[in-house]
Every structure is written in structure tokens, then in C-alpha cells.
Design goal:
Number of helices: 15
Structural class: alpha/beta
Distance between the termini: 24 Å
Order of helices and strands: EHHHEHHEHHEHHEEHHHEEEEHEHEEEH
Strand order of the largest sheet: 1-2-3-4-5-7-11-12
GO molecular function, one term: 6-phospho-beta-glucosidase activity
Family: Belongs to the glycosyl hydrolase 1 family.
Radius of gyration: 21 Å
Largest sheet: 8 strands, parallel, barrel
Helix content: 25-40%
Oligomer: single chain
InterPro entries: GH, GH_1_N_CS, Glyco_hydro_1
CATH superfamily: Glycosidases
Shape: globular
Keywords: Glycosidase, Hydrolase
Strand content: 5-15%
EC number: 3.2.1.86
Length: about 500
């Protein structure tokens, strides 16, 4: 059985504007939800994820105070805004076929509710897309990657407010029109299912003193479903031949034992996660969602015509991030948790290795994920994120021997080959992040994923110089061979 990657397979890397660009107040950009996250080296490691999973009104107010002395890492990123030509040239040197990135909504509409876009922001992405095209790299663009304008949270209450649908569609239509000759592949919302765990950054809801957080989570998600469908409709009309995808965070879930209660708990957890791609890919709410929402005390407000909009404009492909698997128990309080597994929590799996940040590494789970998603949707798939966060040591000669990253990547590519041999229709793979960026969850720079090292520490100190790690040359060889040469 051939395990070859298809001809024209899109190899590349993935980033997000809020973790990459920096220049948070340059050329008219407004504050986004991610610009509120701080990092403090004195905070115990066990609490680094607390803010990612929640936000308070006081934190949001302080972040808008020009006299705040706190450090906000995502405002700086790795300064791609001023280094994009150099960085894209390095991507091209590796042989990238594609680059998954996001457009910062706040560069185009700084508050989100304006009627006229910011020309300086539009011009920046003109330059980025033109540079990518000059190097033969296909841009794959996320419209919303944890970057909604902060004003839509403070002044409108986030996505539970129906008005935000109109603001998003205006933004989407604006960039579709501007970049119709430069961008074919789009994604509407990054990891849309993660609203279950971090509603602030996903749908702009501040949980503090909230009477019914589940109501606002799923009302916000419904409005995102409608916005995604309307954006898909607009994209197909403005850019003939365009492809629009949904994007979820996906973990394979294993029942902890063969006890029926564990089996049921696992099935329920997996189904709740897939609910979001079900609606976007199939075009309707699954039958079991009625019970799920009722048990959460959620009563969705749907406008007349919403269900028809969802049905008429489903996405063209399904993309997902995959970093780990999780093990589910009906009685997790009795077992050792896997606290680094952000999405589901879950139980520690004794058969798997663990990263420096507690993420359990499961390459075979990626093959299972690809098969499950393709069996479920029968739509083309795209791996939008997969990677290993690790501490890299710079040797005296400047080299970085990140064999652990190479091993991780090799094992996952081998399982992708198996999934393709299984019959899965997969058209691309983008490693998260090909260049060191600020971590989404912990706001650290020292949690590094890149093939390209950036000289910057957790508090923003450093020269920002770029250098190639050992994995840079290895991934270059993989791409040149279309995934066939995985040797050392």
C-alpha cells in the first residue's frame, strides 16, 4: 500500500497575528482581546494558565490604562510586523508551499464597529501577501484567531450580542474584496470549540459574576456559526473558486477503562467537542444537541432564517489543531489528572510520554483523528496546527540541536502517511509555529515551537535576531521529498 503524500500537498507552518506581529499600537491598530494578557515571572507555574481560562473586568480595565506597569507579551509578539520580509524569506528557504496566518481584525477595524476600514492595516497585509506570492507560498488565512477587538467586549458584550455578526461580516467582506486576487484559502474561526473552556478570548465573554455562563457561551457560538455561514456565502461570491474551512481543536479521547460509565463519559466529551464542526460542516444542529443544551440550561435565541443560512452555506473543508490525546473517566476525582491537557483536562495516560508543559504526546492519535474526522464529514481535511513546545538551549557556537522536535515531527508525519493510506483526503499540514512566537496559553516566549529561533526572552528582552535550528534543515528535506525522506 502506497503511503505517498498527494502531489501538490501543502506543507508549511502556522501562526496567529496576536502571537506573532507585535506593533500593537502602530498604524492605527486597536486593542484586541489578546492584548490584555500579561506575563509575570514571579507567578507560580501552576497558575500560568489561569488567566488564559478566565478574565476579570479589573484586568481588562487595567490593560487599557496607559499607566499600567504590567508586561503584555502579545503586544510585542516577535515583531513580525517589522520582520515579515526576512521571516517569509526563511519560510521560502525551507520550501514552504503554504503559510497559515491570521489577519488582525483590529488592524482593519480598530474598534470593530467602524464602517470605514483602516487603510494602513489593509496595506500591511497587501505587502505580506505579495511577499508570500513572490516566494511561491500559498497564504491560508484565518479571519478570527483569538483577536476580536476589545471594544466589542467592553461596549457590546461580545458574541452573545447579535450585532457582532454584522461587524464580523463587514470585516470579512472587506478583506475578501481587498485580497480576492491574493488569497484562495480561508478559515472563519480558529478552534471554535474552545469556547467551552475560555469564553473570554473565544466569544468575548467575561465570566466574572456571570449568572449563566453556559447560556452566553452557546449563544455566542450560535452567532459565530451564523457569521461563518454568511462569510462563506460572501467569500464564494467575491472569490470564485475560493475554499472556506472551519477549524477546531481536536483531541482523541480514550475511555480510561472498559467500564460502561467511562465509555459513555468519553463518548459524551468527544461529541460535545465535535458539535461545533458538526454545525459548520453539516449545516445543522445534530439531534442530540437539544438534550445537551437543555442540560446546560441553554435556550438559544435564533433569528428567523438562521437554520436556513446554516444549511445553505456549510464550509468546504474541515481543519483542526492536534497536539495531544486525553483519557476520560466518569470519576476523574479518583485519578491523576493530566493538567497540561488544556482542552479536556483528562486523566494521565501511562502509555504516553509528556512534554515539558504536561501535554501527552500521542502520534498515533493523529491517525485516529484524521480517520474519525474524515469518516464523519467526508470533506477534505487540513491539519492547521501540530507542534511541540519545548525549552531550546543555544550552544556556544549559536547552534540549536532540537532533536526532540525532529523526533516529534517525524512520528506524526509517519502517522499522517498511514491515514492517507487509510483513504483520508488530506491536502495540507502546517506546523505550529515555524518561528518562535509568544505562547497562546502561558504568554511565554521560552515555550518554543519554531524551526527558527528568535532571540527574545519571556519579558521581551533580546535582539530579535533570527537563526536556524537543526529542525529547520530537517523540515526542509521533508518538504523537498514531499514527505518521503524522514531520515536523520
Amino acid at each position: 500500500m502506497s503511503k505517498a503524500f498527494p502531489e501538490g500537498f501543502l506543507w508549511g507552518g502556522a501562526t496567529a497575528a496576536n502571537q506573532l506581529e507585535g506593533a500593537w499600537n502602530a498604524d492605527g491598530k486597536g486593542l484586541s482581546v489578546s492584548d490584555v494578557y500579561t506575563f509575570d515571572v514571579t507567578t507560580p507555574k501552576a497558575r500560568w494558565l489561569d488567566q488564559w481560562l478566565g478574565m476579570t473586568h479589573q484586568q481588562v480595565a487595567e490593560a487599557q490604562d496607559p499607566n499600567s506597569t504590567k508586561y503584555y507579551p502579545k503586544r510585542n509578539g516577535n515583531d513580525f510586523y517589522h520582520h515579515y520580509k526576512e521571516d517569509i524569506a526563511l519560510f521560502a528557504e525551507m520550501g514552504f508551499k503554504c503559510f497559515r496566518m491570521s489577519i488582525a481584525w483590529t488592524r482593519i477595524f480598530p474598534r470593530g464597529d467602524e464602517t470605514t476600514p483602516n487603510e494602513a492595516g489593509l496595506a500591511f497585509y497587501d505587502d505580506v501577501f505579495n511577499t508570500l506570492r513572490q516566494h511561491g507560498i500559498e497564504p491560508i488565512v484565518s479571519l478570527s484567531h483569538y483577536e476580536m477587538p476589545l471594544a466589542l467586549v467592553t461596549d457590546y458584550g461580545g458574541w452573545p450580542n447579535r450585532q457582532v455578526v454584522d461587524f464580523y461580516v463587514r470585516f470579512a467582506t472587506t478583506v475578501f474584496t481587498r485580497y480576492r486576487k491574493q488569497v484562495k484559502y480561508w478559515m472563519t474561526f480558529n478552534e471554535i470549540n474552545c469556547v467551552k473552556h475560555h469564553p473570554y478570548v473565544s466569544v468575548g465573554v467575561i465570566e466574572e459574576d456571570h449568572p449563566n455562563i453556559e447560556q452566553d457561551k452557546y449563544q455566542g457560538a450560535h452567532h459565530q456559526f451564523v457569521a461563518s455561514a454568511l462569510a462563506t456565502k460572501a467569500c464564494h461570491a467575491i472569490i470564485p473558486g475560493s475554499q472556506v474551512g472551519c477549524m477546531i481543536s481536536y483531541q482523541i479521547l480514550y475511555p480510561n477503562t472498559c467500564h460502561p460509565d467511562d465509555q459513555l463519559a468519553c463518548e459524551e466529551a468527544q461529541r460535545v467537542s465535535l458539535f461545533f464542526s458538526d454545525v459548520q460542516a453539516r449545516g445543522y444542529y445534530p439531534s442530540w444537541a437539544k438534550r445537551m443544551l437543555a442540560e446546560k440550561g441553554v435556550v438559544l435565541k435564533m433569528a428567523v432564517g438562521d437554520e436556513e443560512i446554516l444549511r445553505q452555506y456549510p464550509v468546504d473543508y474541515v481543519s483542526f489543531s492536534y497536539y495531544m490525546s486525553s483519557t476520560i473517566s466518569a470519576h476523574p476525582e479518583k485519578l491523576q489528572g493530566a493538567t497540561g491537557n488544556l482542552i479536556t483536562g483528562g486523566i494521565r495516560n501511562p502509555y504516553l510520554e509528556t512534554s515539558d508543559w504536561g501535554w501527552q504526546i500521542d502520534p498515533k492519535g493523529l491517525r485516529l483523528a484524521l480517520n474519525q474526522l474524515y469518516d464523519r464529514y467526508q470533506k477534505p481535511l487540513f491539519i492547521a496546527e501540530n507542534g511541540l513546545g519545548a525549552v531550546d538551549e543555544v550552544n556556544p557556537d549559536g547552534s540549536i540541536n532540537d532533536d526532540y522536535r525532529i523526533d516529534y515531527l517525524r512520528q506524526h508525519i509517519e502517522q499522517i502517511q498511514e491515514a492517507i493510506a487509510d483513504g483520508v483526503d488530506l491536502f495540507g499540514y502546517t506546523w505550529w509555529g515555524p518561528i518562535d512566537v509568544v505562547s497562546a496559553g502561558t504568554a511565554q516566549m521560552s515555550k518554543r515551537y519554531g524551526f527558527i529561533y528568535v532571540d527574545q526572552d519571556d519579558m521581551g528582552n533580546g535582539t530579535l535576531a533570527r537563526s536556524r535550528k537543526k529542525s529547520f534543515w530537517w523540515y526542509k528535506k521533508v518538504i523537498a521529498s514531499n514527505g518521503q525522506d524522514l531520515s536523520d
